[in-house]
Amino acid sequence: MASRVEDFFSFARERYQIKLKREAGEPGPWTTDPILQAYRFCNIFREDDKTTRWFRSNITEPLGHDWPRQYMAAVIFRWFNKIETGELLKDLLLGSWDTEEARRRLYRRVSLEKVPILGAAYMIKSPPGMNKVDGLLQCIDAVRERHMDLVASIFNYQTLQRAHEELVEFPYLGSFMAYEIVTDLRHTPVLRNAKDVDTWAAAGPGAARGLCRVMDVPLGTYRYQSAKDQEPLLKGMQRLLAFSRGGLWPAEWPRWEMREVEHTLCEFDKYERARLGEGTPKQRFSLSRGK
């Protein structure tokens, strides 16, 4: 076993232990690792993140088995990716979407209340020459026009990969955001039975670099945008998933899927850049205060 595989899972276990200790009410700091004390890292399981928890409890769980509304709610929410905007549009996400009513509310939030409507976790693109409100609503309406066909396709194929491929065909809906949407749907009746949760993930640049570090090969060996490199990239991640079930991840903890491999590789790359002095994460984090 490569020593870097052990390092990867040591990082993952320590990060999850921090979450468990914090939720148990233990006083911080919850780790002796100086990097984990100093910088903000995502949870091992995306479902534990604050924004995702809000979306699940307020939108996806109430929507139940309503596949079309589940689909569009995920698309709309992730295009803004902000709890406060979700609260603003909550009744429209749960009921009948009304673009003009959404426009009125969003304009009021931006123009009068001067409150941001977009989250900062990833870059959100919109058509050039348009303000964010009109541009994003135009993008959302483009998906709405086809969403029943997209839901039917998911029903027929039941794979994360196919759902992702169809989403990235829409302008200004990139691979990262499409993967966020698909991951939301994976935890709803829409994609709960997807056949490829243990075989496929949409690896981005951070995950590709992370896999290079874990496999102890030069950075750039796995190029996430290269069709040629997709198979070895996926095989490397599948290998790590197998290791997670072979003793390197406690069996009593929640089970990993390929999403957790991809997600943690990206965070491991962030950790290694800080450790090696190649750069530091953007957000600092005080574990003693939990902020």
Quick recap:
By secondary structure, the protein is mainly alpha-helical. It has helices at residues 3-23, 34-38, 50-63, 67-80, 83-94, 99-112, 132-144, 147-157, 160-167, 175-186, 205-214, 227-248, 258-275. The protein has 2 domains: 3-38 and 198-275, no CATH class; 65-186.
Secondary-structure blueprint of this entry?
Elements: H1 3-23, H2 34-38, H3 50-63, H4 67-80, H5 83-94, H6 99-112, H7 132-144, H8 147-157, H9 160-167, H10 175-186, H11 205-214, H12 227-248, H13 258-275
Strand content: under 5%
User: What is the count of helical runs?
Assistant: 13
Rg result: 20 Å
Mean pLDDT: 93
How many runs of DSSP E, i.e. beta strands? Answer: 0
Helix-strand string: HHHHHHHHHHHHH
Helix content: 55-70%
User: Pairing-aware structural class of the strands and helices?
Assistant: mainly alpha
CA-to-CA gap between the ends? Answer: 36 Å
Main beta-sheet strand count, sense and barrel state: none
**What number of structural domains do the residues give?**
2
Global morphology: globular
Unreliable runs: 287-291
